[in-house]
Amino acid sequence: MKKIRKERKKGVNSLIILAAWSISKHCNACVFEGVTPSVNTILCALKEEFGVFCLAGAKKLL
Questions:
Q1: Which of 3, 7, 28, 29 has the fewest CB atoms within 10 Å distance of its CB?
Q2: So what's the pLDDT on residue 3?
Q3: Judging by beta carbons within 10 Å of its beta carbon (0-12, 13-18, 19+), is residue 53 exposed, middle or buried?
């Protein structure tokens, strides 16, 4: 992380938080709603959330 420029660091941090949120949300769905665990489902949800973040104006994600 030290070699990443300051302006990019915010974007990387946001992506890490977004990934953790997607995993946590899927885990809760598996436990409380009986959803079958699936990496593919997490990746699809992460892609959707990423798109929403970009539409909402998140700039340094890319």
A1: 3
A2: 65
A3: middle
d(CA 61, CA 28): 26
Give the residue extent of every domain in the chain: 13-55
Write out pLDDT tens, residues 26-62. Answer: 999 999 999 999 999 999 999 999 888 888 887 766 6
Phi and psi angles of residue 30, each rounded to the nearest 5 degrees, phi first = -65, -45
- Burial letters 8-31, b for 16+ CB under 10 A, else e: eeebeebbeebeeebeeebeeeee
Q: Residue 41, SS3?
A: helix
Q: What is the dihedral sign for C-alpha 10, 12, 13, 19?
A: positive
